[in-house]
Amino acid sequence: xxxxxxxxxxxxxxxxxxxxxxxxxxxxxxxxxxxxxxxxxxxxxxxxxxxxxxxxxxxxxxxxxxxxxxxxxxxxxxxxxxxxxxxxxxxxxxxxxxxxx
Length: 101
Hints:
Layout: H1 4-20, E1 28-29, H2 31-41, H3 52-62, E2 70-71, H4 72-90
Antiparallel strand pairs: 1-2
């Protein structure tokens, strides 16, 4: 059985693949795929009042090579930034019990 980190990595990859197959390229996310991923996979972190222009801005930030798509490296980079942000936000909180196995 895979440990927690192995499962997390597999989950990150499989979520990208789940949404990347809907437009022309199976290896990138178009804006519609990215929007759906955010709405379904991060619903509590994606404001419901997000407008289309907000998704445009978010897409332009993630799309570092400006090809109008988010590739896997850009996707992982954004998740890494999110992890750093969460770490900084919660680092002064009291320690919690480890995840249940």
